[in-house]
Amino acid sequence: MTAARARTAHLVVAAVAWFALVFQLVLVVSGEAILVEDDPPGLVARTYRYFAYFTIQSNVLVALTSTVLARRPREDRIGWRAARLAGVVGITVTALVYFVLLRGLIELEGANRLADALLHMVVPALALVVWAWVGPRPRIGAREVAYALAWPVAWLAWTLVVGQVDGWVPYPFLDAGDDGWGAVAIACTGITTVFLLLFALYAWLDRRLPPAPR
User: Is the pTM of this model over 0.90?
Assistant: First the structure.
């Protein structure tokens, strides 16, 4: 895989991810009742909640790192490595959690359904295919994994603390008010295990797959 083709592949991922993010943000700002069964809250609360979703943050990481790679497909700095790894693992978790825990909770139609599909299915599929195809790799070591873990840990801590303050959490399996802290702890433990397994899997693939781009 040449650098020129790698640029094109990353550009496609970046374009789709940015479109999905902006499209969803427009729907949120316009007052669509997305992932809620009652009337949406005010604009400030809607905007905060948009950025509070792990789905949005993982798509942002994919969009940002893919944009960098579209310009410099051999990018290789430690901070960037961690961001790239966090994006790839995060977007994988986004797709897995969506299919296992969230799909079908709320019936979406029209533009809302399209945005949902882009963020939870299309972007994850593109990101993972392009990572496997054009890399860049090798890029994953123990230090990168440690740095990449900081984001989901910080996100979880922030989400649980803020949820106790204002009563809102982005995902039902994090709502201690409904299911109790025992259920939340089980969900967090399960998802943390998935994260660790995915980090291990991608580190293994990073060593096994051929270096890319050439």
Answer: yes
